[in-house]
Every structure is written in C-alpha cells, then in structure tokens.
Write a structure and sequence with these properties.
single chain, five-stranded mixed sheet, MetI-like fold, alpha/beta, transmembrane helix, D-Maltodextrin-Binding Protein, domain 2, 3 domains, about 500 residues, about 60% helix, cell membrane, 19 helices, transport
C-alpha cells in the first residue's frame, strides 16, 4: 500500500518520544479517556493524503475543491456514529503517522495497511477493506508483459517504502525496481518510458486505467500477506476505548458491504467528473490559491527573517563583557546550526515538535520555520554589510555626539542596507521557491496544488508546466521591483 516510515521521519519520531515525559505516557496507559476526549471536543480530526484515488483525492464540488473518496465516506460515518463533526486535515502520507503521534490529527484514514511494524507505534481498528495489487503498463506493451515475472531485464516502479515496493524488490529477478514518492510521478515516468510498469493497489490501478486510454493493467501475482493488502483506521497508541467504539462502525460497514455498494461507486462518480474537463484553466482557482499561500509565506518570512537577521547580526558582532560574549556565541551557534540542517527537517520539527506543546496550524508553522531559516542567512548578509561600511562613518557620527545605538541605527545600518540590497533581493527570490517545502505538512501552496491537480486529472506534465510559468512570473516580477529600488538607492 502506501509508504511506511521514512528513515528521516523515524528519527524525528524517536526524538519526540524522548522529549515526552515517561510519566505522562504511563498515565495515558493507566487512564484511557480517548473516547471521552473526542466526544467532549465535538470534533474528530482525520488525517489523510488526498493523492490516492479512489481512496482519497480532490474533486471540484459546487465550485469548490474538496477532499472526496472512499476513505472520506468512512470518516464521515465514523464521526456521525461518535456524535461529532469531522474535520479533514490534508498532508503528505509520510507525515501522517508523526501527525497522529504528536496530536495534529485524531485518526488516519488514508488507505493505510495495519502492518506489524506500524502496530508497534499506533493502534488499528478492524480492517474495512481488503484489496490487492496490479501493475499498470502502457497499453502498447500488453503483449509483452503478463505479470511481475515478465519484467526481467526491465524497470518496475512503485511508491518508495510501500509494501508493493518491498515485494517488487524481493519477488522479482533481474528487474530494476525504482521508487518514487508519488503515484502521479510514477505514471508520468511510465508514459515517458522511463519505467516499464508501476505496481499499485488494484482500485488505484483501475482508476488510472479507466481515465487514461493509453494505460492498461495486468495482475501482479505478488505473494502478499492479508495485512499488507488490507486497510484500517489508525489511532494513537493506547486509545483502546476509542478504537473499540469505532470498531463497531467498521464492522457495520463490512456487514452492510458499504464500501463496494456505496463508497467506491460514489468515488468513481467524482473520478469521472474530474476527467470531464482536465484543462489547466479549469483548475485556475487551485493555482490561484497556491499563489496566494506562496506569497503569504514569502512576504511574512522575509519580514520576520529580516528582523531576526538584524538581531543575530548585532549579537554576533557584540564585543565586551561576559553577557555580550555569551550572546555572540549563542548567535554564532544558531546561525551555524540552521545553515547546517535542511529546511525540510526544520519545517517538520517546528510543526510536529512544537505540536507536542502548542498546536500550531500548518501555515503558521511553515512561516515560523522559514523565517527562522531565512534569519540565519540574512544575519550573515547584514554582518557583511555592516563590516563593509567605512570605520570613518562611525567615527564621524561619534564625534558629533551620537550614541552607539543611534550611530548604528541612523548611519551604519542604512549604508549597510544599501550595500546588501542585492543579496537581500536574492534571498527574497529564493524564499519564493523554497516556500514549496511546506507542502509536506499540508500547506496548500503552488507545489501542493499542482500535485492535487495531477492526481485529479491524471495529467503529469501540464500542471508542472503551469507552476513553472507561475513561479517564473512571480520571481521575474519580484526581481524587477527589487531592481527598481536598487537603482533608486544607487541614485540617492
């Protein structure tokens, strides 16, 4: 099925678990009030990754982009039986288990299979769906490929870390197995003949084939356990009362065969609606939303990053007593640490790490993480700009009776800003592009929206072309504006 823990996420989870006091964990185990908490809160937050039709995907409903699919119908049924409202929180599949363990979501319904490895970290309900695996190929290759054994000497693709990826690695011979993080990327690679086949779940394979006449599907013949081909709902470890209550709903869904009779057919209708008009113009609202969030993140991060940068730069240049020395060392350590770690890890740490103590929204977490990252780089630009100002300027200001603070504020910093303006402009342009990283925690910026459009329309290249053009327009426009102000500064 979908992806298991990535190594990076596993390390972060392990770090978080060390932060949580052991006494709290024992207390939770002793008193299970998980059901009572949800009913008292009145809202059940469902985490999902809406890029996996027909389980969960985006569709335009009454002019609004909405998460739909088989799993969403199940989530609504669970919430209704609990007597609460359902709230859907979208994010990448890799982030879901961490989000569950850090309290960002109350449950996961996202085509997740209850493998033994996952059961060590979360509690699962009874399975609500039993599926299987097929291999999607180009229709022109139907005579060449019959099952997994036909790919000897070829290349078979699958989502990295999934059960089908592991099965392909173990159960094929003389076959190169290539993993990618997204099914839409895999289909794109298949159609561009970089892959010979893509192993995926049967319902997803059927969805792609039924909506793309250039594709076909063949049986995989993988030897898989029942846990690797079934889907269940995940809850935090120790949520026994909540799991038991939801099991009643799951059992009822299976007894009434609601998945096959109602939920899958309903998802199929949305899939057909999505492919009626797959033009990029039809999704202009999605791209506009992506631009909006990209600009919000960039502008806020530049503003707060500049303030943080000034503080860090001044702290790094502090000279004198013990306190100033300590500030200088702390600022230096911060800058070196931030510059020495990937921004993706920082975004995840702020969102999930602080989530243990403060439930910050994804957008706020993204702005905080990018601002902190930008501040470290801006600090070095500002420090270099201050050092570039001639010492005579400081001496002249001091001779006129200006204090150190006023000298820095009115004489040194304005000249430093003029010198480093091109570097600051470059940082602004970079942040426009780097804002795409926050898509991993579910912020609906341009990259996130393009992935949704790709999964909705089954078109791989067109959405990529659109966001390339949009990013170019944003960066080119910003460059022209920054160059205008640069010329004004030079003229002054």
């Amino acid at each position: 099925m979908k992806k298991k823990y990535g190594l990076l996420l596993a390390m972060i989870v392990a770090l978080f678990m060390l932060v949580v006091p052991m006494s709290t964990q024992h207390a939770q185990a002793a008193t299970d009030d998980s059901l009572e908490k949800i009913q008292k809160k009145g809202v059940l937050v469902m985490g999902t990754s809406p890029d996996y039709p027909p389980y969960e995907f985006q569709a335009t409903v009454n002019g609004k982009s909405t998460v739909v699919g088989m799993d969403v119908k199940i989530g609504k049924k669970v919430a209704k039986d609990l007597g609460v409202k359902l709230k859907i929180k979208s994010m990448s599949f890799d982030s879901l288990l961490v989000a569950l363990q850090t309290g960002k979501v109350d449950m996961i319904i996202s085509g997740m299979n209850p493998t033994p490895a996952r059961r060590k970290n979360v509690d699962f309900t009874h399975t609500y769906y039993q599926g299987g695996y097929d291999i999607v190929i180009n229709k022109t290759d139907t005579a060449k490929y019959k099952n997994k054994d036909s790919f000897s000497g070829g290349t078979l693709g699958a989502q990295t870390g999934t059960t089908q990826y592991n099965a392909a690695k173990k159960q094929t011979k003389n076959t190169s197995v290539k993993g990618m993080t997204s099914q839409s990327d895999l289909i794109l690679a298949l159609q561009s003949h970089k892959l010979d086949g893509v192993a995926m779940e049967k319902p997803s394979a059927e969805a792609y084939v039924s909506n793309n006449k250039q594709l076909a599907m063949i049986p995989s013949d993988f030897n898989m356990s029942s846990s690797a081909t079934s889907s269940a709902i995940a809850f935090r470890k120790g949520s026994t009362s909540l799991v038991n209550k939801v099991n009643v709903t799951v059992d009822q869904i299976k007894k009434d065969k609601l998945v096959k009779k109602d939920y899958l057919p309903a998802a199929g209708k949305y899939l057909k609606t999505n492919t009626v008009n797959t033009s990029m113009g039809h999704y202009w609202k999605a791209f506009l939303t992506g631009i909006e969030y990209t600009l919000i993140i960039t502008v806020c991060s530049v503003f707060f990053g500049f303030i943080i940068g000034i503080i860090l730069a001044l702290a790094r240049m502090a000279k004198g007593g013990v306190l100033k020395t300590a500030l200088r060392w702390l600022a230096t350590a911060y800058v070196e640490f931030i510059r020495g770690t990937p921004m993706m890890v920082q975004v995840m740490f702020v969102y999930f790490g602080l989530g243990l103590f403060v439930n910050l929204p994804a957008l706020t977490s993204g702005i905080i993480a990018i601002s902190l990252n930008s501040g470290a780089y801006v600090a070095e630009y500002i420090r270099g700009g201050i050092n570039s100002v001639d010492d005579g300027q400081t001496e002249a200001a001091r001779s006129l009776g200006m204090s150190n603070g006023k000298t820095m504020r009115y004489v040194v910093l304005p000249q430093a800003l003029k010198n480093i303006w091109p570097s600051l402009g470059n940082e602004f342009i970079t942040l426009i592009k780097d804002s795409s990283i926050v898509s991993i925690i579910g912020v609906t910026e341009l990259i996130y929206q393009s992935n949704i459009v790709r999964s909705d329309t089954y078109r791989g290249v067109a959405p990529i072309v659109v966001i390339m053009v949009l990013y170019f327009i944003l960066t080119f426009t910003a460059s022209r504006i920054l160059n205008y102000f640069e010329r004004k500064m030079q003229h002054d």
